[in-house]
Amino acid sequence: MRNPIVRSFFDRATGSLQYVFHCPATLRGAVVDPVWNYDPRAVAVWTDSADEIEAYVRDSGITLDWILDTHPHADHFSAAPILSERFGGVPRAIGDQVPRIQRLWQEIYGWTEDETPGPEVWDRLFAAGDRFMVGEVPVRVLFSPGHTLASVSYVAGDAAFVHDTLMKPASGTSRADFPGGDAGQLWDSIQEILALPPETRLYVGHDYPAKDADPEPMATVAAHRAANAHVKEGTARADFVARREARDATLPLPERMIAALQVNLRGGRLPPAGPDGRSRLVFPVNRFAPHRTGR
Questions:
Q1: pLDDT tens across 268-277, in order?
Q2: Superfamily of the domain at 5-255
């Protein structure tokens, strides 16, 4: 067994961390959670983040085996199809519970049966316990619901890509109040992650550093057990759930959420274009409660 070399990439506009990991012996690799940049004011997309990943992969001589998403993201568009096309059709994968999220949001967006995307928009849906190789690096899939009902983590050698479960130890954990989310499930998922060997490197999905500071993408299992603000050793499940739910009740929806899920539930593709060749997003009015500051 070999452990991967991991390179992180940061989209400061959304606080999103993206990764490329590869086998040092074979230079086979995978991309995790790539960002397709989106400006919600202009309703415009561009590919700076994907361009950065592409340049690194090519300059490093890495051959991609997979482009992996951990869940349908609420804060950015997935660049998986873009990178797949640029590298000759590299397969794209996500967890096998994602069709449940597609059905959940069918009602929210008012999609007809014909408009509702299905699992075919990805090349592979991974189930809990699935295993595959990236070069000589073994990868195991954990089902990690809570932030969403379909989230998965990828454990690649001594590195685990745990998406929006944990944040850096000082920040604690991610929210669990999106449709289908559940703070109790998030706790259970985190306990499975923290049961990995203490030296396991945990790579998180987000950080929000000060303007001139660098993000902190990784801390070990041991560091989280000792110092994570929400789940360090000695924390009770009930206390975590109460704290997480109270915190989530104060948070606004992510600025890009309504737009992002329309794209990400299509596997990272825009809605079909109209007669004028332009795609259009829909925004259901009064489906979610307003975030009223100062009240």
A1: 999 999 999 9
A2: Ribonuclease Z/Hydroxyacylglutathione hydrolase-like (3.60.15.10)
